[in-house]
């Protein structure tokens, strides 16, 4: 069984032009809790063991500021640092104690297409308290890329991810038994496509989606079941233009999984998911999925 240097997607940091409005959405509607405020940031937790899964920071626009991965041990952390540096990636924050309420040790680097990545080990965790209709943890982050093949090679050859599936416009990459933790989507601009939050079960996806709809935020795509990963999904656009997804039942895989290609992931005309019941993605959702750039910090 493959031993990955990176063992989990821990959290995502987004910039928002209205941090109070973003906080209200993610706490009162989406189902997260504020666990800390530090250095101008709001840290939001799900019900799982991660200290936090989302960081909010005031910005002049909605933007992806950082993606944080948890590393298996200190040796792997040091190896990743040297590998990224040797590959030519800019080290934005040197190896050392990480600031902020989750602590741990780690470093921050910029990948070749401009996304800021943080790698941590020994960060604080909390007792898991699974609760129906609320997110448990992050499921995946979907990144827009103008060159999927180049970025996929970086994740595989430098960061140690494995490719699980390749559709016509997306590459699915894993760092544990989840079918994917990172998805790369073909796009004209590099940036954030969406952030997916894992729910305890499909009933929770349905009920939480109803809660969002009750707050006058329509479903952007779904509810349906994806092809690669076989996960249930419901997409929404948050009040500041970031696309977020509730998902459940992510396929669990091991080294015996057969990697699929574009020919394995085609739908009959008019169908957008496995079940065949999801309506076409809304124009607002499609626009938002290509409108959130990297911060470049």
Your description of this structure?
The protein has 297 residues and is of the alpha+beta class. It has two domains: 116 residues, Roll (2,3-Dihydroxybiphenyl 1,2-Dioxygenase, domain 1); 154 residues, 2,3-Dihydroxybiphenyl 1,2-Dioxygenase, domain 1 (Roll). The chain is 18% helix and 36% strand. The protein has five helices and 17 strands. Strands 9, 10, 11, 12, 13, 14, 15, 16 and 17 form a nine-stranded mixed sheet that branches. The protein has an eight-stranded mixed sheet with strand order 2-3-4-1-5-8-7-6, covered by helices on one side. A hairpin with a 5-residue loop joins strand 15 and strand 16. The longest helix has 14 residues. It is globular and about 50 Å long. It starts with 5 loop residues before the first strand and ends with a strand. The model has no long low-confidence stretch (mean pLDDT 97).
